[in-house]
Amino acid sequence: MVKLFRAASLLLVSISGSNARSFSSAVTAFVSSPGARRTFGTTAASLNAASGPLPIKGGEEIMSQKAHGTSEKPVQKDLLWGCDNETADRICNFNRHYAEHAGYWQTTKYLEEVDMSQPTKYYDSVTGKLLFTAPVGRSMEAYLKESASHGWPSFRDEEVNWDYVRVLDNGECVSTEGTHLGHNLPDSSGNRYCINLVCIAGKPEE
After folding, report:
1. How far is CA 42 from CA 39, 142, 163, 174, in A?
2. Which residues, other chains included, contact 179 with Cβ-Cβ below 8 Å and sequence gap of 6+?
């Protein structure tokens, strides 16, 4: 876990100069918009209510080799927010440790297109299954500020759909069908799931 924190810190250092300033300005402008400070409910009807301690753990077998890396198929075409398919496929299906660079979501259309008037649903880029809904129990402003401070979209326990998300013993966060998502990096507020945007930019399964 210490190694993961160090890795995250090193990646965050990579956001510097004009990129950091532009990212900060974009987030500041966004959360200053009307409605960004509205706090959403502590539960979401779309989320499965986990009945035990969190996170729900999974075994290494989830990430066994399948037809396409650790998944049965490649990521969807035309991912949301302009996420790069090649990057997404590499991180989702052929990766266990690495991440999109810190602040990657700054370079996408995410901040332009995300709905700040209500919680957003985030779907697996491979399977299209619902993995996260945010914000839940906090405002969009709080969610975006926390995500910006860490460099990746950051979710809390109540924002996770535990029907399809598991955390391995080493902190790796994955889907139940083998999509690498990110890592759990707990802080003083509890579990914090730092997730690659390219892994949750899918469209709902049909």
Report:
1. 9, 14, 18, 24
2. 70, 71, 92, 93, 124, 125, 126, 127, 199
Structural contact between residues 199 and 181, judged by C-beta atoms closer than 8 angstroms: yes
Beta bridge partners of 133: 121
Which residues are bridge partners to 127 per DSSP?
none
Number of residues in the chain: 206
Q: In this predicted model, what pLDDT tens digit does every residue of 86-124 receive, in sequence order?
A: 999 999 999 999 999 999 988 999 999 999 889 999 999
Residue for token pair 């590499």: 90
* Residue indicated by tokens 């266990």: 96
**Per-residue CA distances from 11 to 18, 165, 184 (Å):** 16, 24, 16
C-beta separation of 142 from 38 below 8 A: no
